[in-house]
Amino acid sequence: MPASPTRTPQQERSRATQARLLEATVECLVEHGWSGTTTTVVATRAGVSRGAQLHHYPTKATLVMAAVEHLAERRAAEIRAEAAVLPAGAGRLDRVIDMLAAVFTGPLYVAGLEVWVAARTDPELRDALVPLEARVGREMHRLTVELLGADERTPGVREAVQATLDLLRGLGVANLLSDDSARRGALLDTWKRQLAAMLTGDQGTSPNPEASWST
Amino acid sequence: MPASPTRTPQQERSRATQARLLEATVECLVEHGWSGTTTTVVATRAGVSRGAQLHHYPTKATLVMAAVEHLAERRAAEIRAEAAVLPAGAGRLDRVIDMLAAVFTGPLYVAGLEVWVAARTDPELRDALVPLEARVGREMHRLTVELLGADERTPGVREAVQATLDLLRGLGVANLLSDDSARRGALLDTWKRQLAAMLTGDQGTSPNPEASWST
Hints:
Largest interface: A-B, 63 and 63 residues
Strand content of chain A: under 5%
Oligomer: homodimer
Helix content of chain A: over 70%
Largest sheet of chain A: none
């Protein structure tokens, strides 16, 4: 993004420092997990002084919260950029699902899951994350609807999009410890046909073997 | 389970001590998460001496591995016991899905997820868990097929059962920080109708509004 003309050089430097800290936090979460992510390790990795780190994010909780928000924005931006070059038409749904599956089995999902699981037993972090989770979830849903060109006024379409995202969330967990791509690929091949039928609302109301789960 | 007549009293005591340690491990994981679960905390909670704990499970990794296996067995036993009293017939599929959803949003799933996420960045634990994960996954699949009375020779049925379990896994994650039961209930209501159609293999090949996702 181009720099806003109303920002001073000092503000620009602050933003750059913050961005480096947040990127380093995400990388730490992916590499070392929640317990291996400390503010000291993050500051070193970001090449930011301990003082500057404490100035911008005084605690691990504030750092991680900001990183999760940053992560969600980065993920949405990456998805939009990739989607912009996708062809319209017949193959689009398949490509969108492949793209989303890559996101839910990639490092950004893993970093988020580390924070989510840690927050479960950390009341302070949890209280801060709950509203953020709701917002990120809504945005992910909206983005998926947009990418699929789905019309949520069609009965069942909203639930079909939700089920797709929950399924992908589960496939992300199934991929945590080992490469689940072969099973996932086969499963998603059938899901894509199922989803295509659901989005047009013709499922179960017209004989359409092409759109069947079992074909 | 009744005690095997071939076991000595000493063996019986060992088994009881092990069971107490494994139950305490699961409880600790649920309450305090991975990082709050230490062998000392577990021994205290189980009312087992530190020496006895070290004798049976010398490291956190061996303790947690045994607990995960114990947890999977306990989960399967609980599901079977609940399923045994379910009525056959029309409402059975709905009840089976409700039961499985309760498992995937309950403490046993949460304890497992703590270990899975920790193992991602712990190579020793990860190597030990991968074969166990594969076995537990297969058993969960087989159990679900059995409970649903599904016939996997019908095309698409295997994938439908897999998708159901991956969806439930994702719904478990979505429920980690806040009560997602209202959204989950609505989503599963539509999923149940969808699944019923998929299991009979009639989906998309015959007009059947009752079995439609969108009704």
